[in-house]
Design a protein that fits this description.
The protein is of the alpha/beta class. It has three domains: 108 residues, no CATH class; 126 residues, no CATH class; 158 residues, no CATH class. The protein contains 20 helices and seven strands. Strands 1, 2, 3, 4, 5, 6 and 7 form a seven-stranded mixed sheet that branches. Strand 5, helix 2 and strand 6 form a beta-alpha-beta unit. Helix 3 crosses helix 19, helix 6 runs antiparallel to helix 15 and helix 9 packs across helix 10. It is elongated.
Length: 444
């Protein structure tokens, strides 16, 4: 109930009749204030006119007046100067420390608001607000998706900055680890990040002009140069043994510790997505020295960014998908266009945005936005559900916005903080309901 009181106060869904405090004083809500999600009063910066006098300050909201004491606000000085206490039930008076009575406003949550909110909370349809979303103006949908896109970038920035802190604030290492994580394409993302963080890049840099030694370190640190107990040495080609021997030398030289190879997942993976191929591609990117933060920043077009990500594999991997696999027909094993798009979406744009925020460079942040606008949207179950509801993705920015909407709001049923949820809950009785929507779909 309290969250609904927050909702109707925030959006000023107030009774049409004159509002009065428990003392009979006339109340006019000029500005409900800003919703405070941290410790302290629920709304800050509110402006309330009481009997003609304008008050500016904080507002606290509870179901009952007695909740004030249950939450121990009477012992917290942060609540000593609130200008109004909004409740559903006034069951006792409240007083400031000086003995003056705190004005209280009783507001009832309209029944239709309760009903609409209950529908959203209990619906099994995905998305739950689809019957209202399909009726919304295009501009409203666009504005909410734009806000979600920014929210998505901000969340990615936090993740990248945390990663940077773990890497001694080195931006090039942060780029490499972020790129490696996204070379896992979901299923092996955690393993790739663990692998990348295990590699001392300053040590690898000393052998950057030798692809064989780079591969030795990369595969060795991945734990992929150890022979399983149930397999004999003869099951592996000469190239494997050469790499293993080189790795043992480099391991001693740089005091390396490989990761546990059990972290890698192979089940239901297509061979071109095996960790071996992705590591070989990353080794080639590192060896050819085409990708670094400076080059990403200086790339003037999306096509230039694509060219920085183009990669292939060394001769052995042209005919193999793992060390133990049989030789196959030779292929360069380039990244597919869809894979390149995902790398730009999940690595390049977030890194540029995070670095732009770090440098207070708005142009760089805008460049990150533009990249998402230029790349095709992702196709997944989230975007398909919203497309069925009438929200189509024009670009990667839109699909990232819908992923943010699903992960941040829909999964936790946090509809009160969602623009679509707001439109659903505020609808007046008589509009299309879920059961009517289902029948209309059948009639079609």
């Amino acid at each position: 109930m309290e969250e609904l009181l927050h909702y109707i106060w925030k959006h000023k869904i107030l009774p049409l009749h004159e509002l009065r405090t428990n003392q009979g004083r006339v109340v006019e809500v000029l500005n409900p204030g800003f919703h405070n999600t941290n410790a302290g009063p629920d709304f800050t910066g509110a402006k309330i006119k009481i009997d003609g006098t304008v008050w500016a300050g904080n507002v606290e909201i509870h179901v009952r007046t007695s909740d004030w004491f249950r939450h121990h606000h009477d012992k917290d000085e942060n609540y000593d100067n609130i200008i109004l206490h909004v409740v559903s039930i006034i069951d006792q008076p409240l007083y400031y420390p000086n003995g003056q009575e705190i004005p209280q406003l009783q507001i009832d949550v309209p029944q239709y608001i309760r009903d609409n909110y209950s529908e959203l909370r209990t619906s099994d349809i995905n998305p739950r607000c689809r019957n209202v979303v399909s009726t919304l103006p295009t501009l409203l949908i666009h504005n909410w998706l734009t806000s979600l896109t920014l929210e998505r970038f901000e969340q990615r920035t936090q993740q990248i900055m945390q990663r940077r802190d773990q890497l001694d604030k080195n931006w090039e290492d942060t780029l490499f680890v972020t790129l490696a994580r996204n070379f896992g394409f979901g299923i092996n993302g955690d393993a790739f990040e663990q692998w990348a963080q295990s590699i001392p890049m300053n040590a690898v840099a000393k052998h950057r002009d030798d692809l064989f030694q780079i591969e030795a370190i990369f595969f060795g640190q991945a734990g992929l140069l150890d022979i399983p107990d149930n397999q004999g040495k003869t099951a592996y080609p000469a190239h494997f043994h050469k790499l293993a021997k080189e790795y043992q030398y480099l391991r001693q030289k740089f005091s390396l510790t490989p990761m546990d190879s059990s972290a890698w997942k192979f089940l239901r993976l297509r061979p071109q997505n095996f960790p071996h191929i992705r590591i070989a591609q990353l080794a080639m990117i590192y060896y050819e020295q085409r990708l670094n933060l400076s080059k990403l920043i200086n790339a003037e077009t999306t096509d230039e960014v694509y060219s920085l990500l183009l990669t292939h594999v060394s001769d052995f991997w042209k005919t193999h998908y793992s060390f133990s696999s049989e030789a196959s027909r030779s292929s360069e094993k380039h990244l597919s266009q869809s894979s390149l798009n995902l790398i730009i979406i999940n690595t390049v744009a977030p890194i540029l945005f995070a670095y732009g925020k770090y440098k207070s460079d708005n142009e760089l942040c805008q460049k990150a936005f533009d990249l998402w606008q230029d790349v095709k949207p992702e196709q997944n179950y989230i975007t398909r559900q919203w497309e069925a509801a009438g929200v189509t993705c024009q670009n990667a920015g839109d699909s990232q916005a819908l992923i943010q909407l699903n992960n941040r709001y829909c999964k936790s049923r946090d509809c009160l903080r969602c623009q679509f949820g707001y439109e659903y809950i505020k609808r007046t009785p008589g509009l299309l309901r879920e059961e009517d929507y289902s029948r209309s779909e059948i009639l079609k």
